[in-house]
Each structure stands twice: as C-alpha cells, then as structure tokens.
User: What shape does this take?
Amino acid sequence: MNLFEIAEENFLISFAVVVSVGILQGSILGRGIRKRFPALKRHARIVSFTLLLLFAFNALASVLKFAVPDKLTITNFTVPTTIEEGFTLLINVLGLNAGFVTIVVMFISITIILFLRSAELSKPARYFVFTVSVITVLVAGIGRFTDFVPTVFQILMYAFYQVGFTIGIFLVTRRQETDVLPEFE
Assistant: This one.
C-alpha cells in the first residue's frame, strides 16, 4: 500500500491537511507582505480583494494545468541550429506557447515570487514557504516532463491546496490594523 492509497482511504484527513498547509502558507506570506508594506493596512479591503482575485485566477489556472499538463518528450526536440529555433525550444520548455492564460499565470507566479522575496519572514517561515513551493513546482514538473497522469483524487488535493493558499492570503491581508498571527521566531 503506497502513500496515495493511504491518503485516498483517509480522504477527509488528507483534504484537511492539504487545506491547512495551504492556509498556513498563504497566511505566512500574507503576514510577511503586511509587515513589509504597512501602508497596505489602511487599504486592506481593496488590497485583499485584489489579491483574492489574482490568486483565485492563478489557483484555477494552475489546477487546470496540473489536471491536463502539456507533455514534453525528448523525441520532439532537436538541437537548434539558429537563434530562432533556440528561442522556440526555450518557449516550448517553459510552456509559454499556450496562450494568454499562461502568460497571466506566469505573471501572477512571478508576482508571488517577488512577494516572497520582499516579504519580511522569519527563517522558519521562509523555509516552510520555500519547501512547500518547491514541492509544488516539482509535482507540476513531474506532470509536464514524464508520463505521470494525475488521478481525480490528486487533482482535488492540489485544488484544495490552492484554495487554502488563496484563503490564507485573503484572511490575513484583509485585516485592517491588528495582526492575527504571532511572531514566528
């Protein structure tokens, strides 16, 4: 019995854990953003609603890309002989050839990275957010570069994580003046 089978048998616990990790990661990142940009507290509702829309769109697009990833195989690639072929290869590997939605998701992802970089986070919080983010990228990469096809349960787990992350950022950034999370040292 592997880990996925155990998680599927205890699906309520699995969903609760995944949502909790997402909420915790979103809350930590939201708190770091609030500490780094204290002026956002005065406009908390507008900022939190904007972040909610951005992260909700990112979550939806990420779940759809995870559910049906564009597969890349080595047999499709040739050694580029011109600069144009090199750029085409780079665009295919990065997944930028999928249209407007992909560009928007990449923009939001870069924004998340910049928030993480500029957010004031303690070392344990930064390591937690970084570790969960790396695991998420690895899972998405496995789906893109291998023959792995996620099951409905795995897609739901990823969707619940993304929802938890979005809710975590929204709940923390919508607070106007008080800070709900204790200091992580």
